[in-house]
Write a structure and sequence with these properties.
alpha+beta, three-stranded antiparallel beta sheet, two-stranded antiparallel ribbon, 4 helices
């Protein structure tokens, strides 16, 4: 009987000591409350870039045709007006890249490679808006022109 009570007392003391150590660790090293001046993360906003006409170019540089893309830009909500005002600069940067980027896919070259176009827009965005403004590009429509 004494042996069982002794083992039970050791078990309870170990649980208490372990629980107390865990609680003290969380108090000392746990997550901190945000500072009073800290802001909540900014929600993303979609900015319509309108219709973008782009040439479809084969890998050898020959023109296959043209395609019209409808694009939505995902930006922080506080930068939406800034991005909308600078859309002409983005369109210029896209035009400077699309004529030398092979986007023609398929056997006849009339199918656009949407992923390549999305990468072109992402590469052109820092030139128009600065680094880190554009989060994602959503190509919502692609039509032959």
């Amino acid at each position: 009987m004494k042996k069982t009570l002794f083992l039970l007392a050791i078990l309870l003391a170990g649980l208490g000591l372990g629980g107390g150590a865990a609680y003290a660790t969380v108090l000392l090293l746990g997550p901190r409350a945000p500072a009073a001046g800290a802001h909540a993360p900014v929600e993303p906003s979609f900015v319509d870039a309108g219709k973008i006409l782009a040439p479809l170019v084969f890998a050898d540089g020959r023109l296959s045709g043209y395609v019209q893309f409808q694009v939505q830009l995902v930006v922080p909500a506080d930068k939406a007006e800034f991005v909308a005002a600078r859309l002409p600069l983005l369109l210029h940067a896209i035009n400077m890249r699309t004529y030398r980027t092979p986007m023609a896919a398929g056997p006849d070259g009339l199918i656009p490679d949407i992923e390549t176009f999305r990468k072109v827009v992402m590469a052109a965005a820092p030139e128009a808006f600065g680094a880190g403004v554009l989060r994602k590009v959503a190509v919502t429509q692609a039509n032959p022109a």
